[in-house]
């Protein structure tokens, strides 16, 4: 190859290298101090940056894993690292909150403690549930009901306060079964002292707020406590109790976003094929029995047993009870098509 062509190639190569390395050359020139070299390097770097000649070099260095250098301060790197760690911790906490609680599998020598409580309906239901779970040999239990109570009148009896001050720290249950609602079909007073009419949008919003806050109070920091929140059953026409479908819907929808709360739908156990109130119905043995007392509100022992065996079945799906005995008599349990029914609460009018 002629010497002239070789010279031209060398000059072009050096010029290309000078342009591609303009930023590095300028940094070295700045480090040595001002001078004619610094002026030339500044001009070359300006031209190179303007036409983005260093783009190819940056890509090559990045592909080779070379540290191209930036002006970022070490303190800024610390801040970015702390932000990333905080974001990861928050993501871990969110993921943990989505995990269902883990209750240690009970045994006859190490039983699990169950607390059951609520309003007056829970008196019969709780007594039946205590008897039913006692047959397994792996439970201890406490019944804690208060007549004429619920979430509507905390000035009369404050259930959230009772739960966090008395039940959780003193009884220390691993499983809670609770039911409110029968006494909540009334007007409420909100935090600002305004009277909210039963069934109004404001009433529904306030009841949802109270139910959601109570659920959040029941979450165990160590995620080892389970709550079965039973929706109220349908009430008979002679009871004059209204709004149970709306209350059930609120409880069910709030429970869906809280794995430590399991909604249990009592409605199908005390209704006919059309989900309408029924006074009597057949159990698994095919014999029709009376499920409700004369007031069309409270359960009979037969009705309470019917629900209790189903509640135990739900618990057994969430907690390993294989060390115990679960054998519901056909005369006390609901038919299989009811106990295996998908938990879909009665939909509130106008709700999606």
Could you please describe the fold and organization of this structure?
This protein has helices at about 5-20, 20-30, 35-50, 55-65, 75-95, 120-135, 160-170, 200-215, 245-255, 300-320, 335-340, and strands at about 110-120, 140-145, 175-180, 190, 195, 225-230, 260-265, 280, 290. By secondary structure, the protein is α/β, with parallel strands linked by helices. It folds into 2 domains: about 5-65, no CATH class; about 110-340, Rossmann fold (3-Layer(aba) Sandwich), CATH 3.40.50.1110. A 5-stranded parallel β-sheet has the order 2-1-3-6-7, with helices on both faces. It has a two-stranded antiparallel ribbon with strand order 4-5. A two-stranded antiparallel sheet has the order 8-9. The chain is elongated. The termini are far apart.
pLDDT averaged over residues: 85
Helix/strand order, N-terminal first: HHHHHEHEHEEEHEHEEEHH
Count of DSSP strands? 9
* Gross CATH architecture of the largest domain: 3-Layer(aba) Sandwich
Compute the number of helices: 11
The top level CATH class name of the largest domain: Alpha Beta
Percent helix? 40-55%
Structural shape: elongated
- β-sheet strand percentage: 5-15%
The low-pLDDT segments are 346-352
Q: What's the story with the biggest beta sheet?
A: 5 strands, parallel
How many domain modules? 2
- Gyration radius over CA: 35 Å
